[in-house]
Design brief:
The protein is α+β, with helices and mostly antiparallel strands. The chain contains 6 helices and 6 strands. A 4-stranded antiparallel beta sheet has the order 1-2-3-4, with no helix packed on it. Helix 4 packs antiparallel against helix 6. The chain is globular. The model has no long low-confidence stretch (mean pLDDT 91).
């Protein structure tokens, strides 16, 4: 028997499973008082105000219920963290001269198991994929006269 994907009650997007510990770490006191669902899901759709919902879609949490901004909801904002463990922001990753070094630093720290993605990143997952995408975007935006090979 395969599990039917659980959809966000607001936007209809498929929510990804997220550990309860992620919500426990990132919900505000008011959010925690509402209760942490048994099977929470994460909605990373930028246009959707819901961040977390339960498998039965009875409880939802928005960014107002979290102690950090959600990168997936604000990927265009320079000050929003992409890497919550080591404080790397979207703006820093758009700087082509710094992006590679920042991504490499995070990769080294992740490999050394110095990260805490499951409790610091709202998605509950590692940020390296997002960092790589931003690094590639910064490299593509760099003028050809400045590009290095």
């Amino acid at each position: 028997m395969t599990e039917t994907p659980t959809r966000c009650p607001m936007c209809g997007g498929i929510g990804s499973v997220v550990a309860r510990v992620t919500l426990k770490a990132l919900l505000t006191p008011d959010g925690l008082r509402r209760g942490v669902p048994e099977e929470p899901r994460y909605c990373g759709a930028a246009e959707c105000p819901v961040v977390y919902f339960d498998a039965d879609a009875r409880v939802t949490f928005t960014e107002a219920d979290l102690i950090v901004p959600v990168y997936a909801k604000h990927s265009g904002e320079a000050s929003v963290p992409v890497c919550y463990c080591f404080g790397v922001t979207a703006g820093e990753m758009r700087d082509a001269e710094r992006a590679s070094g920042l991504r490499e630093m995070v990769a080294v720290q992740v490999k050394a198991a110095h990260c805490a993605c499951e409790v610091k990143n709202p998605s509950g997952r590692c940020c390296l994929g997002d960092l790589v995408r931003l690094e590639r975007g910064a490299a593509q935006a760099m003028p050809s006269c400045c590009a290095t090979t």
